[in-house]
Q: What sequence folds into this?
């Protein structure tokens, strides 16, 4: 019976976010019992779930849920229809496997990065995502804040439509020796028409967004990657209205990115106001940026 | 199993030369949810053939990395019979995604619709990659407004002659109106039609039944895109029923397949020429 005592001493603090009021699906007849949806995130590494974590989720949804799990678009696994009376036990099992409720409400939502095994990545973003996750995830904010990282300009994680988006980019260097006659590989590969013929070589004009597609297409090693860094977009959103983030920095280094994110979040905390005509909802980060202008918004807030 | 350019659907080249990533989508009994049985199968595969981890993608599929190409047929056999299939890659219709059916804000739960659309069309070869996203309300968590075809469910509300008890539940957060469209000034219930996003949420909390859902419908948006050149979708059409929605999406895909040149996404065509070609 010592097992039981040990279990009793394992005290849980009820999480403030991640336990969402839910409804029962129409096809299940359970009346008079409160149910919640649990939105869980894997920690420490938040875009990946281990086999052990999957098995824990399997057990939890079989025992306490409805045998189903919903995949949310921000790497969360949502466990629906957990009875209020089972909540403590379900949370305990999840905690032990390194799964935590979170990614809901007016807080910094689950950090979103692309997977580390993608061969297209210009620069790895997972470590950065993990650092941001450790420092800022689930921190209280005036409204929800989403932070996304993309390892290349294909932007699978949609950093343009998030409050703070980070995209790895690279600057193209044009070699000095001549291109082979009639080769147009890079010009065709460029989605933006940013490459022009210039004498025996090519020239990159100001339409370039540093996606490096041309370097992949170049078969002669004429085009090279000169430097890599991160483009930081601020103030995007998606949902009932769509807004694309404005570029704040390009070719920022890892620590610069962390610094920008910290500054943006602290500015947002200090400068957010209630939405016009509303006494209950505060502005999203993008709305504050729109009201103040990006430069003014990013200025260090008064101490 | 559809094969194209020597590559199977659902197989993505990994960072290591000899390893691939397998992307798995569910088609039965749901497409936006995985059952415990399916989770178990995926865990077993990741343990035996992969490196013990999986990645959850934003389009409600699961990726298993570090798989050897030679074991793919074995894995397909394991997936067989569990409602799982490799897919959602390449120039096909990608996995149709939907928001959670347990969400309080749903005007209409759309998960089953997504599963139906998946069974009808997923894996279909089209001129370009095509995303379909179904949202149960205006907040569009699954990004309907930046998908090639986005659907947002709407609930038209009306005021009945049942007496309002002035409880103001429909006005106040968190259960009340999310967009401040309802006011209860001087004891008179008023709904601002300009602000209302037709989610029907207020009718759930109204106990006397003063606010009632009159009818539900679906708004279809077309021509959105994420990625390198993001673009917001434009409103295409409002349809009244689930059957009409399924039919209209089928027709849209058919016209796109006939009209689009290879490599054109639906968003590319709409960007250049507008939605005219979808009218038929």
A:
């Amino acid at each position: 019976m010592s097992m039981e005592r040990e279990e009793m001493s394992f005290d849980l603090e009820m999480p403030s976010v991640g336990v969402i009021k839910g409804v029962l699906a129409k096809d299940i007849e359970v009346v008079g019992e409160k149910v919640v949806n649990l939105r869980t995130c894997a920690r420490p590494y938040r875009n990946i779930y281990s086999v052990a974590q999957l098995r824990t989720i399997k057990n939890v949804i079989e025992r306490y849920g409805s045998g189903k799990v919903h995949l949310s678009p921000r790497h969360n696994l949502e466990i629906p229809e957990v009875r209020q009376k089972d909540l403590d036990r379900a949370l305990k099992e999840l905690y032990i496997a390194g799964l935590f409720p979170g990614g809901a409400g007016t807080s910094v939502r689950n950090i979103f990065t692309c997977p580390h095994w993608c061969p297209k990545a210009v620069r790895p973003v997972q470590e950065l995502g993990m650092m941001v996750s450790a420092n800022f995830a689930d921190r209280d904010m005036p409204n929800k804040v989403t932070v996304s990282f993309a390892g290349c300009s294909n932007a699978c994680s949609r950093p343009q439509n998030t409050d703070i988006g980070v995209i790895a980019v690279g600057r193209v260097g044009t070699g000095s020796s001549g291109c082979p006659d009639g080769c147009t590989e890079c010009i065709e590969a460029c989605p933006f028409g940013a490459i022009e013929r210039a004498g025996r070589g090519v020239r990159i004009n100001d339409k370039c967004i540093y996606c490096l597609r041309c370097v992949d297409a170049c078969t002669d090693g004429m085009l090279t990657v000169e430097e890599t860094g991160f483009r930081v977009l601020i103030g995007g959103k998606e949902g009932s209205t769509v807004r694309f983030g404005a570029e704040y920095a390009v070719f920022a280094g890892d620590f610069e990115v962390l610094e920008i994110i910290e500054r943006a979040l602290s500015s947002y905390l200090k400068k957010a106001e209630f939405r016009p005509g509303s006494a209950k909802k505060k502005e999203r980060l993008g709305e504050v940026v729109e009201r103040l202008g990006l430069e003014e918004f990013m200025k260090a807030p008064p101490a | 199993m559809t094969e194209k350019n020597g590559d199977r659907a659902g197989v993505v080249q990994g960072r290591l030369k000899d390893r691939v990533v397998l992307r798995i989508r569910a088609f039965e009994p749901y497409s936006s949810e995985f059952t415990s049985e399916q989770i178990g199968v995926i865990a077993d595969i990741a343990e035996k053939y992969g490196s013990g981890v999986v990645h959850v993608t934003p389009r409600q599929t699961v990726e298993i990395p570090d798989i050897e190409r030679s074991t793919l047929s074995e894995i397909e056999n394991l997936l067989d019979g569990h409602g799982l299939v490799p897919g959602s890659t390449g120039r096909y219709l990608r996995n149709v995604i939907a928001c959670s059916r347990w969400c309080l804000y749903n005007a209409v739960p759309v998960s089953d619709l997504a599963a139906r659309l998946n069974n009808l069309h997923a894996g279909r070869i089209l001129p370009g990659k095509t995303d379909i996203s179904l949202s149960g309300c205006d907040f569009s968590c699954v990004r309907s407004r930046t998908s090639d075809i986005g659907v947002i469910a709407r609930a038209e509300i009306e005021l009945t002659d049942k007496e309002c008890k002035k409880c103001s539940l429909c006005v106040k957060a968190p259960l009340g109106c999310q967009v401040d469209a309802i006011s209860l000034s001087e004891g008179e219930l008023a709904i601002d039609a300009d602000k209302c996003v037709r989610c029907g949420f207020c009718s759930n909390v109204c106990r006397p039944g003063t606010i009632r859902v009159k009818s539900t419908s679906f708004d279809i948006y077309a021509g959105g895109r994420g990625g390198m050149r993001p673009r917001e979708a434009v409103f295409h059409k409002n349809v009244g029923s689930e059957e009409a929605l399924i039919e209209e999406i089928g027709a849209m895909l058919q016209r796109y397949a006939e009209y689009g040149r290879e490599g054109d996404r639906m968003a590319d065509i709409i960007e250049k020429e507008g939605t005219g070609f979808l009218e038929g």
Observations:
- The first strand of chain A starts at residue 19 and ends at 21.
- Residues 25-32 of chain A have pLDDT under 50 and may be disordered.
- Residues 155 and 167 of chain A are 7 Å apart (CA to CA).
- Chain A touches chain B through 59 residues (CB under 8 Å).
